[in-house]
Structure prediction request, 461 residues.
Amino acid sequence: MTSESVRSYARHHASEYRRQLEELLRIPSISTLPEHAEDCERAARWLADRMTAAGLENVEVVRGRGRPLVYADWLHAEGAPTVLVYGHYDVQPVDPPELWISPPFEPEVRDGFIYARGSVDDKGQVMTMVAAADAYLQMEGRLPINVRFLIEGEEESGGEHIKRFLQTDLDRLKADFAHVADSSFFDSATPSIDTGLRGIVYAEIRVRGADHDLHSGEYGGVAPNPFISLARVIAQLRDEHGVVMIPGFYDEVKPPPETVLEDWRSLGVTEEKVARDLHVRRLIGDSDRSVLERQWALPTLDVHGMPGGFTAEGAKTVIPALASAKVSMRIVPDQTADGVWRLFEQAVRRMAPDDVEVTVKLIHGDDPVLVPEKTPEIRAAAAAVREVYGKEPVLIRTGGSIPVVGLFQERLGIPTVLLGFGLPGSNLHAPNERFSVEQFERGIETNALFWGLAATRKFRG
Prediction:
């Protein structure tokens, strides 16, 4: 179990750990943009150097097709279990940059929050785990549990490198359970542990009319406009309430047990409160289902962007040759990424007008995950949260996706503890992303305590 001296060390070195985080946040490691490939390499090397300085062993920047992985371990806790610690150093693009109050890669502390791209998703949370290991090794010279770190650089862009790694390097990843810090508390007053994640299918629809842009005065009224055709397709994918209209889309959806739904209802989330928090006129979706059920247990379909044509200042009267749309679907048990992709592709082809050429491309897809709720590791994590926060954590699901969790279950056969420290309103994937300084510091203590408890006989059975 964690000695008080380790937690005290973490508290006394909190400003140093925050300074280290700010160094990492200054590296614009946007994995989806090719021009930031070297920045992803820099972030991986930075993490490797920090892990080495902390006292972790066998530290390696694992290169291959795609962005590098970072591996490290410490395996000298004889008789103790092994935890596989996962996070990611890559971040989302910053668009639109003009909406950031401070530059996205120049971290700034305001009102108790660190503002920067990646602060909460996921560099800040990665550093809560690296700092927990550092506090143990600097204070006691050992860890209470065997630890393997695996930090990836493509979580925001499909995760192909780690998928290949999990097919070929299983011996290096042998563990009893995984610990993932890439999630959020239910709210600032309600600590929580996630037990479910939606999967994702991310696709692109491309519509081509003529073989080049056309003058709208000369050809308007006779030439098909790809944007109009694309809009017609998109308009058929969801109804006016936000319900997905793809045939068969909901056939495999498995509703949560009534006991789980009762627990969610007890959290007191209302339509009015969520609409007010989001600053929207009303919520969408099936009004017969609660807000949390729509967020955590029902699939979705959203359009993320429609590039093409003329979008600069001023006017240009052109009928574009090409229009496209980025579309994703969040999926739930018992849907599969392959099955939903086939339904989507077939539906788009049926909906497509015959005056344009329509192609549909799968960018990436991953299945949803449910995490067992009654494992010894979940109980140890709950005890750690209770000790640090003074409250019993609630068990929730999250609407987002962490593809590697399903891979840990499938390929390594191990359960996962989803213990993250973000808060609602952290602006994940949006301008002015932020991470609570208090959550960062408490996260380090909670992780250290969790590892100590997970190694004790009380929780190991």
The chain has 15 helices and 18 strands. The chain has a mean pLDDT of 95. The two ends are 15 Å apart (CA to CA). The first strand starts at residue 57 and ends at 62.
